Structures are given as C-alpha cells and as structure tokens.
Amino acid sequence: MTKENSRRDYFLLLLIFLLALFLRVIYLPQIAKEPPISDEAGYDEAAMNLISGQGYGMFGYKSYQPPLYPFFLAGIYRLFGHNYIMVKVIQMILGSFGCILLYSIAKIVFNGRIGLVSAFIYALYDGFIFLNGHLLTENLFVLLILLFVLLLLRFSKTENLFLLMFSGVLIGLAALTKTNVLVSVPFLCIWFWTRSKKWVLHSLVLILFIGMTILPWTIRNYLILHHFVPIATYTGESLFRFNYPNGMDVELTRERARFKELGLKEGEMNSYYCKRLIEYVRNNSKDYFCDFFAWKVDWNIKSFFFSDYIWFPCSKPGVSIPYIPLISWRVLSFFSFMGILLSFRCWKRLSLFYFYLFPQIILILTLFFAWTRFRLSLEPFFIISAAFSIYSVFNPEFIESFHKREIVLES
C-alpha cells in the first residue's frame, strides 16, 4: 500500500468512526431516561456499593458476577456522579472505537479495503448501537476480545513475547468481565500448535499471564468467602438455570430456598448447583436428553442463527433511527455465511477466528439459552466474513489471487 492510499484509508476510517459515534449519539435520546433493569440493575448496585465504601457485591452476594464491568461503572460514577447518561456516552465513544480495532484485524487477515468495509458494517450494525445504550458487560467484553485477537494476530507475525504477554492480560481481563472466554483458551493453545514449533512455550506464557491477571481476584474471593472461587459464584447457578427443566423460574426459586435452609454459604454455590444438576441428569438422562436438551438446542440454533437483536428479558427490539437504514443480523448473517464459504480454502489465515468462535458457539448452543445478547462478542468476526464476501462480489479476481497466495505460502 502506498503512502497516499494509506492516508486515504485512515481518512475514511476517521469518517467511519465519526459516523459510528454520530449514530450512537442520535440513539441516546431514545434511552436516556431508561432505568437499569435485570442484569443492568445488578451492575449498577455493585458499582454504587464500591463508591460508597461497602465493597463489591450485588443482590446480597459478595462475588456473584465477574467484577470488571462494575468497577468500570464505579470509575465513571466517581468522576461524574451517579449519571447513566455519562456511562452511555462513554460507552458510545468506546463502541465507536471498535470500528478502528475491527479495521486493524481485517487489514492483517485480508487487506485494508476489507478492513474499511468491516468498519463501516460495524458502524451501522444495530446490535452494537443498541448495546452501547445499556449498562451491559458486553460493552467492555467486545473491546477486550477485539484487542486480544489483534495482538495475537500481530504476535503470529512477529513472535514478540511482549505481545503474547499482553494478550494473556487482556484475556484475563475479559474473563473478569465474562467468564465464558476461558473456554476458548485450550483451543488457542491448539492454534499455537498449528503455527509454531514453540507452541508449548507460547501456550504456557499465555496461560501464565491469564492466571496472573485473575489471581488477585481469586485471592480476594478466598479471603472473603473462605472457599476457592476463581471469579464468580454465579457459574453453578447459571448452569442449573439454563439446563434444568423450569430452571429459569420454579425450580430455581425452590433450590434457592433449599440452599438457605441447608445453611450453605455463598462460596458453596457453584458446587451445590452443579451437583443438583448432575444428580437430575443422571437420574433422568433419557427424558433430559431426548426432550428438554433436544428442545433447548433446537431453540438455541433458531435464536442464535436466525433472530435479529432482542435483549432479554425486556424483549425490546433493536434500535431504529429514522431515515437511516441500519444493518440487522439477518442481513449480516447472510453475507457472513457466504463469506465463510468463499474463504474456506484459506481457512488457515482465519484459523484464530475459528479457534475462538467454535468453542464459544458450542458453549452457547448447548449449556445456555442463546439470547441474542450472548452473540455480540462473536459478531465482529462475522462482520469481517461479511465484508470479505461483499468485497469479493465487486472484486471477483481478488478471491482467486488470494487463494493463489495461500497456496504459495503453504508450499
């Protein structure tokens, strides 16, 4: 790329960033006065507990949810007061910055043109605009995922261990925001194995820095709860809730009452709910797998792959901005799956995406209910795939030349 083309791309990227920010600011008046509900209320409560000197906690628990997002909220409240609008404005600025991160990732994997298309789709995608207007962990989580993927891609080209160390820190921070990212770590080690003879060293360095990032919070939990709780106590309850028939309401209420009657402590929540779930599955395995589990996976597939953005539990549809045609998941997914097919022959170039996405998708489809919110941290990579397919439609010679370069690299 010439310097002139590079300057032009950066100028276009700046315009896309401003477009993304503009769309989010237009959306702000629609949700400026909405109070936090459900998970939002919990994060808000935890943040207020922090700045009032009561320590971290929500819903009467000391370590119920991962802590990073409530600490983020507490920092904003400390600077600007208990002001939801300022939180949303800051999230909109950070969300717009995601365009730049996605451009950088797509540029490494494909080229700057596809990077610009990716950034443009990100700016117009209704799910991310909607997200930035709500007090949800994904506001931080998506950015942390994009940052660690960007650094790992750069590491794969330079093998600079400092990039790998920082990637580990970012994954650790992501785990302190949403724990499900840890499911992908073994698969990232496999990715190292496919790319380098030093894969054992690289895997150990990554895991070491993930562990070092999480360790202070684990120590804090042990000192307060007197049990080993790596990050949060909600994990076992979540597995029970999403995998036990009627676990979302009747059975969960019953088990919570039983938990209190037994005099168990918060630090025992994970083991208690996991044991109860395992007991049920073991005693009712045929009915569970043939009826409930099969129904849940079928529902999850339909929700994950075919539903536009709706945030459970309020069931409010995605954002609508008059006179501006935003991009919905159904449009994005069509071009994304087309891009996956077109890029299949160069799967090694996209292997980091696959090694991160595959375990996350399996986790969502099998162990949780696939609320469309859970899809958000995966959608940037679907956006890159969609950008690849759109660019290839207008530049059909690009696919052939791209595949030829892959053959040369492999040989």
Please supply descriptive tags for the structure shown above.
single chain; mainly alpha; 18 helices; 2 strands; 1% strand
- Our estimate of the beta-strand percent is under 5%
Helix and strand succession?
HHHHHHHHHHHHHHEEHHHH
Could you give the distance between the termini?
A: 25 Å
Q: What's the rounded overall pLDDT mean?
A: 86
Low-confidence stretches: 407-411
Largest sheet: 2 strands, antiparallel
* Number of domains as seen in the coordinates: 1
Helix-strand makeup class: mainly alpha
Strand order, main sheet: write it out: 1-2
Number of strand elements: 2
Computed Rg: 22 Å
Global outline = globular
Put the structure in a nutshell.
The chain is an all-alpha fold and 411 residues long. The protein contains 18 helices and 2 strands. It has a two-stranded antiparallel sheet with strand order 1-2.
Description:
- Helix content is 72%, strand content 1%.
- The chain has 411 residues and is mainly α.
- The protein has one domain.
- Helix 2 packs across helix 3 (68-80).
- Mean pLDDT is 86; it is low at 407-411.
